[in-house]
Amino acid sequence: MAQSQEEEVILKVKRFNPERGFWWAEYKLKVDKFTQFTEALRRIKSEQDPTLSYRASCHMAVCGSCGMKINGEPRLACKTLVLDVAKKYNNNVIIIEPMDYFKPIKDLIVDWDEFYERMFKVKPRLYQAKEVLEGKAEHRLKPEDQRELWKFAQCIWCGLCVSACPAVVIDQQFLGPAAHAKGYRFLADPRDTITEERMKILIDSSWRCTYCYQCFNVCPRDIEPVTAIKKTRSFTKLYKDKSEVAEIGERHIEAIHESISKTGKLQEAEVYVKAYGVLQSLIDLVYMSGAGKLKYMLVQSKPVQNIKEIKKILGGE
Amino acid sequence: MEKIEYDAVVIGGGLAGLMSAHEIASAGFKVAVISKVFPTRSHSAAAEGGIAAYIPGNSDPNDNPDYMTYDTVKGGDYLVDQDAAELLSNKSGEIVMLLERWGALFNRQPDGRVAVRYFGGQTYPRTRFVGDKTGMALLHTLFERTSGLNVDFYNEWFSLDLVTDDKKVVGIVAMQMKTLTPFFFKTKAVVLATGGMGMLYRHTTNSYINTGDGFGIALRAGAALKDPEFVQFHPTALYPSDVLISEAARGEGGILKNVKGERFMTKYAPKKLDLAPRDIVSRAIITEIREGRGFPGGYVGLDLTHLGEEYIKERLALAVEAAKSFAGVDAFTEPIPVRPAQHYYMGGIDVDIDGRNPDIVGLFSAGEAACVSVHGANRLGSNSLLDTLVFGQVTGRTVVQFLKSNPGNPTSNYEKEAEKVVDDAYKFVKSESGVHFGQILEKLRDTMWDYVGIYRDEGGLLNAMCEINKLRGMISNMYVIDKSKVYNTEFFNALELRNMLDLAVVIAKSALERKESRGAHFRTDYPDRDDNNWLKHTIAYLRGNTVEVTFKPVKITRWKPEPRVY
Q1: Size of interface A-B (CB pairs under 8 A)
Q2: Is B202 marked active-site?
Q3: ipTM exceeds 0.85
Q4: Where are the catalytic residues (chain B) (predicted)?
């Protein structure tokens, strides 16, 4: 490991307080290649400007305190090295802002109330059988189950995924990626006893995710909330009291599967009709023709030649 | 000032605080948890390697709780209260299985039972773990559990000071950080579970929030600290950012090497080698570096490369990630650069085996904030998580007993006292000019590291006393530039600094008094342990600008002091 050279950077921080509103402050400091953003901020606060406010605690990416936007990307400040960002953008001026979606309180500190509310909505705790809780029975956990659950149990409530999620902004009934990761961790736990109730909380919401994979990209613990959502959707077939959103979603998936196994292609028009029904499709047809998009809907393509290979991949027949 | 009433108030939302709150709430009492962070941001989350436990039918067939107690007593260089260590060992299996039932995802053996690994100073392997994020896993589990109970959480509230009347707890004043509004929490029982104080040192593995607030609060209220001179340095903090590389890395077979590629622990602990207790390994590393066998910049290598990628990934994921993210080192192919850094505080608020402080009625403490003492002069790895849960539970139950036998509410004219607490907090930062907290803080951290660190001597400690007293004088001139009434972190940093300085002077003075070397307290001018004169606990009070030091005997049940060789 080579000794490290110091380089000068400028951090442009978007600041806020309720009396003054937003403004920008610039700080010049020397950092080396190991300097984390949390350390850079700490030094600014203790050496240059004690009024700068931000949250930070563990500086090792397990407490989830220091989420912020660094050059436009939602990141944990501790898990991000200053010179890495300077190199990536080929610019020693770096922009730091509070996370999107959350309401700003002071500088980089944002309001968490709504986020926590969503997290608590999924009943984030294990409801064990009474005998196990009382120590009268033991519920052993297979190593492979432990590994599966632990992946999703590592959510540190940092909120980066929520700040990056477009669906959560427009759909109040979507619980958001973090709450889904947490919810799935308990839904999938073979020791949990309130599966039915969890399905009621999670399934409708899981079909409201748009699969944009932003949560997958920004999660500092590689939890893949979108994977948790996918896996939650697979519980839909076990659930009786389905909402309309879940039913359409299920039909949509089935139609896609059918289309691909029959023709090797995604026949959009067929899938649409099967997912939304004839009536809704006709209504939407009117809108689409109004928007000049009718031709896309009527595209018919021939099945691929080697359909057997496709079926093999799909794992059927 | 607004007032709110509780049967008990727990300060701190880490493992010890949540466990106490769990017990108090489960008994039907009204309890509040006040934390300056959201509970899962507590420093407990940063604990990595594991939690020690003897579980009948699931441990090494030769192991038993007595070996565990013996290891703890010897590891603590015989300053451990042995009745407390016995309690810790005897309850270890039960508490781990309780957390397991609450949903903690411990790593498993192929048959589905909880798995085990070696840690420093253990006769038999008995550390239970969740990868190398055990603290985070346990903290989340306990928070999930507690948040389902009838516990009121005051997250991001800063506790200022206790209010007492005739050495009895009347309540505590805390301030909502978002609005700077002070509240008086009227209560008969306060549990200080505020964790450690790593930020006193230039190099620490601790979270930024570990500023020793509970110690400051206890000292100002007139409670004593026990064994304040005992500060643990962890041998393997990542160079240069001081992120912890878990002792599990050595427990799983990692080897320390100097610049010549030599496994130097053969010289310092021929039997236990790299798995000798932390004080011994820390001193060995510093000695290697000082004698010119460290790498340029001052570190040694922690070699995992022989363990195989898959094994390392499953059991030491965080160590690999930290080495990669924070030092640019690929732990699969090259040694991780490490050096010692402050890690844990064995000293703490003086409490008995039930978590009760003897100076103030209604004051309790648990976890790293407390000194029971189960860690003595040096804590063994994976005993701290165990301590938080076992004594968190014990203390919670003690509070329940206390509340049952003391019905009725505290009566006292608290109003004036509470106002004074707020005035005091503002007083030392209300000047229009002067120094700001950063100038004092950085000097304090250097002073503690240079003179009250791994190696100590009389000259250095006198220097430290002089410097700390100067800094304590300077804070009357401290001022806060930020006048904002919303989440004013500068103000809270200044309050943290007051706590840090109140603690620093007590640590330095106690270290100066103890003229021997024991565990983590190493005096180059008195390099040997001296049981004749010093097999006793330090009890230190802060009275204004003076530190009053007295002593208390160590409780010895079955294990007579013997030379500590590994």
Answers
A1: 174
A2: no
A3: yes
A4: 278
